[in-house]
Design brief:
CATH architecture: 3-Layer(aba) Sandwich
Helix content: 25-40%
Number of domains: 1
Length: about 180
């Protein structure tokens, strides 16, 4: 059984933490499930929880139809490093853009410098990554929306933390509903 978040107070300020954020996964989960946006300032605080942040990386897909400059500036202002790639359009009109492989490579590359990896994603594709990182003695946490999180990921990590309303930004219009 997983440790509940309210019991996650036993930590050391000397533990080295890496936070890896699957921005598209979190953005669309917040929008679809909660009709809200994720507060990335509070997200960082929740992920780090007083421990020593070594790296906080947000993985972003650039869409030529959306201006993300202000969003990226906000992330940088909150201590996130930004990695971005262009969306790829296929001949059939569909598009492809995900960071799973890039995130996995970064986590593996940084694992020797970290005590704790925090994956901010609910993607079940990370289960094998979690298993691998744990064999290196790294503690792994996942932080995501419970409704859109793969059950195998929840079971694979050392601690699972569900994103609750305290990490959401709701528009004034959606608050009235």
């Amino acid at each position: 059984m997983k440790v509940l978040e309210d019991k996650l107070t036993e930590y050391s300020k000397y533990q080295r933490v890496g936070v890896f954020v699957d921005v598209q996964n979190m953005f669309y989960s917040a929008k679809r499930l909660e009709n809200a946006k994720l507060n990335f300032t509070k997200l960082m605080k929740k992920a780090v929880r007083g421990r020593q942040l070594i790296r906080g990386i947000c993985y972003i897909v650039n869409n030529p139809d959306i201006d993300q400059e202000n969003f990226i500036d906000m992330l940088k202002g909150n201590g996130y490093e930004i990695k971005s790639k262009e969306i790829r359009f296929r001949a059939d009109g569909s598009s492809k853009a995900d960071w799973d492989m890039g995130m996995a490579i970064d986590v593996i590359s940084l694992a020797d410098k970290l005590d704790i990896v925090v994956l901010v994603s609910g993607d079940g594709d990370f289960v094998d990554l979690v298993s691998h990182i744990k064999t290196k003695g790294v503690f792994v946490e996942a932080l995501s929306f419970r409704k859109s999180t793969n059950e195998d990921l929840v079971n694979a990590v050392d601690n699972y933390i569900a994103i609750e309303s305290d990490l959401l930004i709701r528009s004034k219009r959606s608050k009235r509903r």
